[in-house]
Amino acid sequence: MLDHIACDSRLLASALTENSSLLDNIGYQLSGLVVVFVALGAIWGLLEISGFYFRRADVAKSETSQPLPPAPTPPEATPLAEDIAVVIAAAVHMTCGPNARVASVVVVEPPSHTWGIEGRRHIHSTHKVR
């Protein structure tokens, strides 16, 4: 494999003469840059054309699609204890400043720990009881 790489590097180096001038070297590098930028420009152009096609398809699809059903209503808010509301308001005041207002507070139920309990049960079932 190293012979193949060495062969490729000799082929690339053979593009320049042994006693090449500074202008030859600069021209060689600039032609390489032009090739790279043309390739990148071609890729960019293809992506723009495909993006135009997909945006046009999305517009056509949205014009023919049915309207969305109404969003489900949020569950009823449970009353919040006054001391918890005071702590939340104080935290918002200290974090965001005196002009910040709490719009709403939603109580989120903690996730169940059934998977953790099942994992512990599995671990304990592998232990030998004497």
**Major beta-sheet overview:** none
Mean pLDDT score: 80
Regions with pLDDT < 50 over 5+ consecutive residues?
none
Strand content: under 5%
Structural class computed from helices and strand pairing: mainly alpha
Portion of residues within helices: 55-70%
Number of helices: 4
Describe this structure in words.
The protein is mainly alpha-helical and about 130 residues long. The chain is built from four helices and no strands. It has helices at about 1-15, 20-65, 80-95, 115-125.
List the helices and strands and how they pair.
Layout lengths: L1 H12 L8 H43 L17 H15 L17 H13 L4
List the keywords.
single chain, mainly alpha, 64% helix, elongated
Please outline what is shown here:
The chain is mostly helical and 130 residues long.
